[in-house]
Design a protein that fits this description.
about 230 residues; Double Stranded RNA Binding Domain; three-stranded antiparallel beta sheet; 10 helices; about 10% strand
Length: about 230
C-alpha cells in the first residue's frame, strides 16, 4: 500500500518511516510508549506547508486580487471538506493504520481523520522530498477545487452571519466546547447556534473550528435556504 501512496504523492521516500508515521492514526498506538510516533506532529508541519504552497499558488493565479479575496480562496482550499475530498480521491484512507476498534467504527472515512492524514502525508513529503515535491503534489491534487473557483467564495462564518441577520434577526453564537491535544497540535471543538439550530466544528485553531461549525450549520439549513431563494 505504501508503494501506491508513493506513486500518488509522486515521490519515492528515502526515509520510509516518515510515510509510515504519516499514515499512523493515534488510535493505532494507544497505550504504547510509541504514542509520539502518530501522525499528529507531521500534520502540524503539513498544515503550514500547505498554507505556504496555496498562498504562493493563489498569488500567482490571481495577480489582481487583494488580500481579502485571496484569503477567502485560501480558507476554502485548506478547509476540512476539501482536504477530506482530496484524501478520499487519492485513496489515502485505505492506507491508514488505525486500531481495530476504530476501524470497525469507520474512522478511516471520517472527514477529520482524512484531512489530518493528508496534511501529515504532505508534511512527510516535505521533509523527505523538499518544497518542490510538495508543491508538485499539491498542484496536481488540488487542481479541480482550484479550477472550480471562478469568484472568491464567501467564508462560512460570513455567509451564516448574513443569513442569521436577515432571517433570524440575531447573530450566531459561538462557544468553545473543548480544547485538547498538546500545545504544538491543539484540537478545538466549537459549537455555533442560531435560534434552535446548531452546528459543531473541529480544528487546530478556534478560527478553523468556528468555520467548520458554521459550514455544518449552513449545510443543515440548506433546505431552508433553498426554499427562501425559490420564494
Amino acid at each position: 500500500m505504501s508503494d501506491a501512496i508513493e506513486t500518488i504523492l509522486g515521490h519515492r521516500f528515502t526515509r520510509p518511516e516518515l510515510l509510515r508515521e504519516a499514515l499512523t492514526h493515534r488510535s493505532a498506538l494507544k497505550g504504547s510508549s510509541r504514542a509520539h510516533e502518530s501522525n499528529e506532529r507531521l500534520e502540524f508541519v503539513g498544515d503550514r506547508v500547505l498554507g505556504l504552497i496555496m498562498a504562493e499558488w493563489l498569488a500567482e493565479r490571481f495577480p489582481r486580487e487583494q488580500e481579502g479575496d485571496l484569503g477567502r480562496r485560501l480558507a476554502y482550499l485548506v478547509s476540512q471538506p476539501v482536504l477530506a475530498a482530496v484524501a478520499e480521491m487519492i485513496g489515502l484512507g485505505t492506507a491508514l493504520s488505525v486500531s481495530p476498534g476504530e476501524a470497525r467504527a469507520g474512522v478511516k472515512r471520517r472527514a477529520t481523520v482524512l484531512a489530518d492524514a493528508l496534511e501529515a502525508a504532505l508534511g512527510a513529503l516535505y521533509y523527505d522530498g523538499g518544497l518542490d515535491r510538495a508543491r508538485a503534489f499539491v498542484r496536481r491534487a488540488w487542481d479541480a477545487p482550484m479550477s472550480a473557483q471562478i469568484e472568491p467564495p464567501k467564508d462560512a462564518k460570513t455567509t451564516l452571519q448574513e443569513w442569521a441577520q436577515k432571517h433570524a434577526g440575531d447573530l450566531p453564537v459561538y462557544r468553545v466546547a473543548s480544547r485538547s491535544g498538546p500545545p504544538h497540535a491543539p484540537q478545538f471543538v466549537v459549537t455555533v447556534q442560531v435560534g434552535a439550530a446548531s452546528g459543531t466544528g473541529r480544528g487546530t485553531s478556534k478560527r478553523l473550528a468556528e468555520q467548520q461549525a458554521a459550514a455544518e450549520l449552513l449545510q443543515a439549513l440548506s433546505p431552508s435556504l433553498e426554499q427562501r431563494a425559490a420564494s
